[in-house]
Amino acid sequence: MSAYGAFSSPVSTAILPSTVWYLPPKNSASRFISIHHLRLSTATSPGFIEHLHREFAEEVARGTSYPQETREGETLSREAFEAYFFAESVIVGIVHEGDLLGLSNEKDTTEIEGMQMKEVVISSEDARAERAWEECVAGFYYVKPNYPGRSSHICNAGFITPSAQRGRGYGHVMARSFLYYAPRLGYAASVFNLVFVNNLASIRLWEQLRFTKTGLIPRAGRLKRTDGQGEEYVDAYVFYKDFRELAGYAGDKS
Hints:
Elements: E1 18-22, E2 32-38, H1 48-62, H2 78-85, E3 89-96, E4 110-112, E5 115-120, H3 124-128, H4 133-136, E6 137-145, E7 154-160, H5 170-184, E8 189-196, H6 200-208, E9 212-224, E10 231-242
C-alpha cells in the first residue's frame, strides 16, 4: 500500500525469465548469480519466505536504513512483511559457487552497466541446489508502484543484502538487475523516496548507475546511531531514474 492507499499495478501478472549475471573473479567466491522474478503466489519453496522475512525483520530492528519501526523485544510480523515486500514483484539473487547447472558459459551475453548477463531457464529452487537459503541467497528486493493510478508507471524498490553476504559485490549485481527487470515489468521510471545521507555505499552505487538526486528531505528519518548511543534525525535524498531509453522497456500504457 502506498501513502495514497491501495495501488493498482500497470504491469502484467506474468513471471519474467530468470537471468544469470557474471561477476569478475576478484569480486567474490561466486563467479555468477542467477536472478529470479517471483510473486507471493509463486514463492512456495519451503523456508524461502521465512528466510526473507527474517532478514528483513533484522534490518528493520537495526533501525538504520528502513523507516519501519518495531518496539524493543518485538519482531516485524510475517503478515506485515508479506504485505509490504510481496505487494507486487520480488526479485531474488542466488549465489552459484560451482557450475553444477551449466551456467558458466558466457556465450550470447548482453552487457548492462559493465556486467555480462543473459536469460536462462532455471527456477529458484533448482538454483538453490538443495542448499540452505541462508547459504545461497545473495540479495533480494521488491518492485512495486510508488504511486497509484495515473502515476503507477513510476516504481519504487527496496533492497536487502543478507548480513552473511555483504562485502562481496552482490549488491552491485542486484542493482543492475533492477535496470533489467523494472522496465520489462512496464515501469517508465523509478523513485527511491528515502536514501539516507549516511548510507554512503548506497549513494555511491546509485550515482554510479546514473540515478539523479532530485531532492533532499531534512530530518527524514529518526534512525538508531551506529555507535549504539541512542537515535538521531538523518536527512535523506530522493533518487530518480528514467527507464524509457533502457532496453526492454515495455512502453507507456495506452
